[in-house]
Design a protein that fits this description.
The protein is mostly helical. The chain has one domain: Rhomboid-like fold. The protein contains 9 helices and 3 strands. The protein has a 3-stranded antiparallel sheet with strand order 1-2-3. Strand 2 and strand 3 form a beta hairpin. Helix 5 runs parallel beside helix 7, helix 7 packs across helix 8 and helix 7 crosses helix 9. The longest helix is centred in the middle third of the chain and has 22 residues. The relative contact order is 0.19.
Length: 231
């Protein structure tokens, strides 16, 4: 199922959401301009490699703590392909504006980064010995989806479904997305126990979604609301 747009009105301009989308696209354009060797070096240095943390926790000083912590932040702004970045930014564009509208600009930025960190931590905890760099904004975006699921379950999402275009309740499409990722993550973990999984970081999606759903009410609604919807 591919969401096209939602019908939930917003009451403010989502400046932070636009900034995040623009920043991710600009960084990917930079990635696309690199030669393969330089790109590989960039991904390995600024993507999260769970094995580096495993080595650190084992008492080795081969990978210093700053070099382990920094990628948890930078990996959120790196992507592996055009389809990867476009897919992530499309979901962020559709669902992020309403969550920013609810939280307010600054709290939305903090919420986005925090759920992204929790998402990545979940993936690392499940696949601690993976040597494959993990990159992408999907963990943080999963946090946004979890928040939307809690805030606007009855909003309708215009969705492309094979040859049909239908209005689907948000709780259906986002619930389906979460269950699909949970089952995919479980199947992958059971299929390759104790091995480096690679591929899609399903557990980052699961961790991000759950953390977003739990934290959005903790962050609370912005104090000022506007009387008219702007889009």
């Amino acid at each position: 199922m591919l969401p096209i747009r939602d019908d939930q009105p917003r009451y403010s301009t989502p400046f932070v959401n636009y900034f995040l989308i623009g920043l991710n696209l600009v960084i990917f354009l930079f990635e696309a301009a690199l030669d393969p060797q330089s790109l590989n070096l960039l991904i390995h240095q600024f993507g999260v490699v769970p094995y580096h943390l495993a080595v650190f926790l084992g008492g080795s000083h081969r990978y210093p703590l700053p070099a382990i912590v920094l990628p948890f932040f930078t990996s959120m702004f790196l992507h592996g392909s055009w389809m990867h970045v476009i897919g992530n930014m499309w979901f962020l564009y559709i669902f992020g504006d309403n969550v920013e509208d609810y939280l307010g600009h600054f709290k939305y930025l903090v919420f986005y980064i925090l759920t992204g960190l929790i998402a990545m931590s979940t993936q690392v905890a499940i696949d601690l010995h993976s040597t494959v760099p993990t990159v992408g904004a999907s963990g943080a975006i999963a946090g946004v989806l979890g928040a939307y699921f809690v805030l606007y379950p009855r909003a309708r999402v215009l969705t492309w479904f094979f040859v049909f275009v239908l209005w689907v309740p948000a709780w259906v499409i986002l619930g389906y997305w979460f269950v699909l990722n949970f089952l995919s993550g479980t199947a992958t973990t059971l299929a390759v126990p104790g091995q480096s999984m690679g591929g899609v970081a399903f557990w980052a999606h699961v961790g991000g979604f759950i953390s977003g759903a739990l934290l959005v009410k903790v962050f609370g609604e912005r104090g000022l609301r506007y009387p008219y919807a702007v889009g």
